[in-house]
TrEMBL record:
Any Pfam family: Nitroreductase
Protein name: Nitroreductase family protein
InterPro entries noted in UniProt: Nitroreductase (IPR029479), Nitroreductase-like (IPR000415), Nitroreductase/BluB (IPR050627)
Top-rank taxon, per record: Bacteria
TM spans (from-to): none
Listed PANTHER family: IODOTYROSINE DEIODINASE 1, NADPH NITROREDUCTASE
SUPFAM superfamilies: FMN-dependent nitroreductase-like
Entry keyword annotation includes rRNA-binding: no
Length: 234
């Protein structure tokens, strides 16, 4: 798959089919992930693939409980992403959160159908600097295979139980960074929508100084007039 197509169309997919992901596909995805950059090439990561139906059922119950805790926080104004980003419209933010919850409800209700969970663990992760490139590589490589997914942190609410179920050697310093749900999506791929354009979220040589060009529309797929528009504004 062409790299820009992968970058522009890889998005969170929560509506997944139950069809199993072949082992060779899983191997290609993780083989790409372990090529990700990481500090001093220490590779302090470990991936646990879960396709056992009984285990997935256990994690489904934990996921629903953890998600309920997060939305309880949200309803009282104490959870993450409660407030819109500075300068953003509160109504737009509320609508975005409503859509995300609706999509997440589907994932929670159909969690037992997910064909593959991927738990990602790290040691001395420096705030995610060493593991998130690998996680993004998982999602990009999965996209190239026609596999969709979503990364979630909610099971950190029950991290001890996750460690117990998976036999994680926590005494060695391993911590769960994230869990990914992976499967063939029911929906269609497309350019990620509802993104604020580059010139609204970027500056040059200092905060809130103009970036230099405006990018009113996605630059992929390429259009004949795209670079001309940039040149005229820059």
């Amino acid at each position: 798959m062409e790299i820009h197509k992968a970058l522009y169309t890889t998005r969170m997919m929560r509506r997944l089919r139950p069809d199993p992901i072949p082992l060779e596909v899983q191997a290609r995805i993780l083989d790409a992930a372990v090529r990700a950059p990481n500090g001093a090439n220490t590779q302090r990561w470990h991936f646990v693939a879960v396709d056992d139906r009984d285990l997935i059922a256990e994690f489904a119950e934990l996921f629903r409980r953890a998600r309920a805790l997060e939305y309880e926080k949200f309803s009282t104004g104490t959870g993450p992403m409660v407030a819109p980003a500075p300068g953003r419209d509160p109504e737009d933010h509320a609508e975005t959160m409503r859509r995300i919850k609706e999509s997440g409800d589907y994932l929670a209700d159909h969690f037992e159908e997910i064909p593959l969970l991927l738990f990602v663990f790290a040691i001395d992760d420096l705030g995610g600097a060493n593991i998130y490139p690998a996680i993004w590589s998982v999602l990009l490589a999965a996209r190239a295979e026609g596999v969709g997914g979503v990364m979630t942190l909610v099971l950190r609410n029950f991290e001890d139980r996750v460690n117990e179920l998976l036999g994680v050697p926590v005494e060695e310093g391993w911590n769960m960074s994230a869990m990914l749900t992976l499967g063939y999506p029911r929906g269609k791929w497309g350019v990620a929508a509802n993104r604020h354009p580059v010139h609204e979220v970027s500056s040059r040589n200092g905060w809130n100084t103009p970036f230099g060009v405006e990018v009113p529309q996605p630059l992929w797929p390429p259009r004949d007039d795209a670079m001309g528009t940039l040149a005229a504004v820059g």
